[in-house]
Amino acid sequence: MGFQAEKQVVLDHYAALDAGADMPACGPDLLWRGFHPFGEIIGAAAVSEQVWRPMRAAITSLQRRMDIFFAGENYLPAGGRWVVSMGHLMGLFDRPWLGLKPTGKIVMLRYAAFHRVDGGRVVEEAMYFDIPHLMVQAGYRPFPGQTAQHLVQPGPTTHAGLLHEDRDPKEGRRTLAAIEAMINDLGTWQLGLPLEEELRRTWHEDMLWWGPEGIGATYTIPRYAQQHSAPFRAAFSERSSTGHIARLAEGHFGGFFGWPNFTARLTGPFMGQEPDGKLAEFRVIDLYRRQGDKLAENWVVIDLLHFWKQHGWDILGEATGT
After folding, report:
1. Fewest CB within 10 A of the end CB: N or C in the chain?
2. Each residue of 278-292: pLDDT tens digit?
3. What residue range is the signal peptide (predicted)?
C-alpha cells in the first residue's frame, strides 16, 4: 500500500499555504509543534493567525523551494502515516517579523516538517523553522561561538530527494536499518570506541552534516568530530535515551522528530557559553540520506532558541529588545 494519497494531501496543503489560503487541508483540531517562540498550537485557525499570516505579511513574494519529500509508516508506538518535507521558504524580508528588523532583501527561511495525514487531512504537524539562520541573514549575530560553517544549506548531493512516486519498500527498510544502527551506536555515548572509529561504523568518510545555525555545517568524519560531535559530547552529561514521536523512511531518505528528542545536563562549555549544570531538553528534526548501507548526509534542525531559553538566555528577546 503506497502513500500517494497522503503525499497529495500535503502537496495540496502546501499549495494552499503558498497561495495565501488558511490551511484548508488541515483538520480543525490540528496539533502543530514549532520552533520557539511558537511552541505547541492547537487548531488550524490558530496556526494561520499566529504563524502563517504574520510571516507572509513580513516576507513577501514567498516561494517554497523544496529539497526533500517522502512518506512512510511510523513504526514507533504512536503510529500513523506521515509525509516529510525539507527546504527553504524564500522571499523578500520587507516588514518586521518576530521583532526582527526587515532588510528589504532576499532571505531563505530553512524549514523541516513532519505531517501526519489521517482521513484525507493533515491532523498533526511538526514544522521547525531555523529562525537563528534567518537572524544571521538579517544582520544579527546571535551565536558568536559557532564552531562550524554558516551556509544557506543545499538539498541532497544526488538531487534526488523529491520522492513524488512511491519507492520500493525494501529500500526504505534499508534506510531505517542504517538510521537504527546509528541510534544504537549513539546510545548514551558509551560505546567505548574512539569517536571517529565509532562514527565510521555507520557514516561514510565524506559525510555531510548540515547542522542548525549556532553550530553550522561540517564535512567529513574528522571535521564533524572536531567541529560538532566532540564539543557536544564534552559539554553534556546525563543524556537521556531517545524519545521520538515519529521515525520513518522511504527509498534512500529517512528521519525522525521528538518533543523532546532527549534531555541532557550542561556541564561543560557549549557554543561559547559557560555551563550552568541545568538539565534541558532538545527538540530536533533529523533527516538522512543513505548511500549503500551507511549514512551520507544529515540535515538537522535543533530549536536552539528553546534550548537556551531553558538556561535563562532569551536569544530572540535580546536581539529584538522584547
Report:
1. N
2. 999 999 999 999 999
3. none
